[in-house]
Amino acid sequence: MDVWNTLIGVALLILFIGPIAFAITTQKRKEKKKKETLINFAKTRGKNVNELEVLPILVLGVDSKRTSLFFTNDNIRINYIDLDQIADVRLSVLYTEDPKRHIEQISLCFLPKNIEEAEHKIIFYLESDENCIDPETDLYIAEQWRKRLVVH
User: Fold this and answer.
1) Membrane-crossing residues (predicted)?
2) 112: which residues sit within 8 A by CB, 6+ positions away?
3) HSE value, Cβ hemisphere, 13 Å, CA-based, for 125
């Protein structure tokens, strides 16, 4: 009788823990692939990415000399910003117009030294994206990246 109770207990444990473990390993595998893709793209440009961060809607990394920023929002196309051509990096937070005024979008805006060029924008949080959960955390992360890149 004790053997059957033990077997049923182990089976139920596997039944409940299995899907959670599978989801975690799948997520880790996806993050690792995203990181590798970004690092390999940077290597094709002759750069080594040493600071890398994976967020729900964004993967970004900066090279060791902080002269190049690599990022992707859609996991398909990787973008590149030459930080030597950037005059300033600003944090942009857009709020909704309703009475509750909650955050709608968080982004970093890269203002080029040449005023004829268009500014670059990296979105950290977008309320309409179901993958974005916590605007306060994304705001903190965006501010940390702004500080890293302004020092450059």
Assistant:
1) 6-25
2) 85, 86, 87, 118, 119, 120
3) 23
Residues in CB range of 101: below 8 A, 6 or more apart: 95
Which residue segment(s) compose the domain that 142 sits in?
2-151
- Give the type of residue at 115: I
Sign of dihedral through CA atoms 136, 138, 141, 143?
Answer: negative
- Residue 22 has a CB neighbour count (10 Å cut-off) of 10
- The total domain count for the chain is 1
**108, amino acid identity:** L
Q: What is the pLDDT of residues 82-132, one digit of tens each?
A: 988 999 999 999 888 877 788 889 999 999 998 888 888 999 988 888 777
Measure the CA–CA gap between 8 and 2, rounded to whole angstroms: 10
Q: Report phi then psi at 148, rounded to 5.
A: -60, -40
